[in-house]
C-alpha cells in the first residue's frame, strides 16, 4: 500500500496498492479507480517511432535534448517566503528546497530535473509525485490524463502494469505539466513533428554504413580484349578471388592484370563527398535544434563567433529555456508539494536563473561596484568564496576614505579625470 504522507500538515492520502490489491478511498473522500491496464504501458508507445530507440540511435536528438536538459538541471532552486511585495526571505533549510536537492534516497536533484526536462521535451508532458516525503518521477508512458468534453483535465491516473491496480493521483501532491493539444489535455509529442526528419537521418546513417562496407574503394570496371584466350575455370576463379580480396582489403597488395586487361574508373559513382553527408548531418542538427527553440550555435551545429555565442548563452536561460522554467516553477508551487512539506505562509520555490544568466564574477563586481558607488561584499563573504574559515571582525563593510557621497563613484575611479568641478578640493588641485 502506497501512502503519501506530509510531515508538515500531518495529512496522509492512500493512493492505492503497488501489488495487486483492492480499490481504496482517500482520506479526502476521493474514490480510487482500479482498472486493469491490460498490456503494460511501460512496454508500449503510441508514437510513430519508439522514443527509446530515437534516444539511442539519433545523435541530433540526443545532442540537442541532452544539452537543454543538462543546462536546465544545473540551475539551483531556492525557497523564499514572501513577506510583502517588496520583501522576501530566503528559507534555505525549508524541506521544500531540500527535496529539490535530494528528492529520493538514490536520486539527487540534478538527476530528477534532467529527467523531467527530458520528459517535457520528448513527450510534451512530465510528472513527479510526492510519496512518503520523496519526490518520485513518473515515466510519461504511465501517465494518463483524463479530460472532459472541453479538454479540461479532470483526473490523473498512473497506469500500472498488468496485475497491479492503477493509481489515482488527482488529489496527491505532485508536479505535473503538459503542452498543447487541440481537443484534450496531455500535449502532443514533438516526436510526431520530427518523425519524418529523424527517419530520413536514420536511413542516411544506414546508407553510409552500407557504402563503407560494400562500396568499392576504387570505383571502376575491367576491360578484357576480345582476342584474349578463353579463360579456364580455375584460372578465372583465382583471378576474381584476388580482386575481391583487394576490394575488401586494399592493403593486401596490388592486383595483377592479365591478357592486356585495362582498368577504367567510373567518375559517376556516389561517394560520401558528393553525397554531402556532412552537410546533411549538420542540417539535421539545425532542424532538431530549431524544433526545440535552441540556437544551433550552442550545440555546434552552426559556426558562431565569440560575441554571438556569448549572447546566445545569455539567451539560453531567458527566452530559450525560460518557458520551461516558468512551467516547472508554477507546477512545483501549484501542485501542493510546497505546502505539504512546509506550512510557512507564502512560501514558494523558484529557480535562480539570474545566477546562470549573469556574467563572470569579475563582470558582476565591476557593474555592481559602479552602480552602488562603493564596495558591496564583506571580508567574511570574500573569504567564504575561497572556503576559508571565518575570522571575527570581518563581518563589517569596509568603505575606503576616498569613497564618500558626492565624491568618487567607487574606489576604482581615480586619476586626473576626477579632479575639477564645482566640488573639487582646491588643495587636491594645487
TrEMBL record:
Residues 406-430 are annotated as: Disordered. This is Phage portal protein. InterPro entries: Phage/GTA_portal. It comes from the Bacteria. Pfam families: Phage_portal. Residues 409-420 have a biased composition (Polar residues).
